[in-house]
Amino acid sequence: MYFMQYSVNKMRYKELFWLCVCPNYQFCLQMHKIRLFLKNLSKGGLDVPLLHGEPVVIGRGPQTKIKDPRLSRHQVKVTANFASRNAKVVQVGRNASTTSDGPIGAGKSAIVRIGDRLELLEGEHAYVLAMEDNLKAEKGTPAEREAKPAAASSKPKPAPILPHTGHWSHGLLAAMSNPAMQLYVDDRVVIIADKYPKARHHFLVLPKEKIADLESVGKGHLDLLEYMHEKADDRAKNEYPGVEFR
Question: Alpha-carbon distance 239 to 81, whole Å?
Answer without folding.
Answer: 34
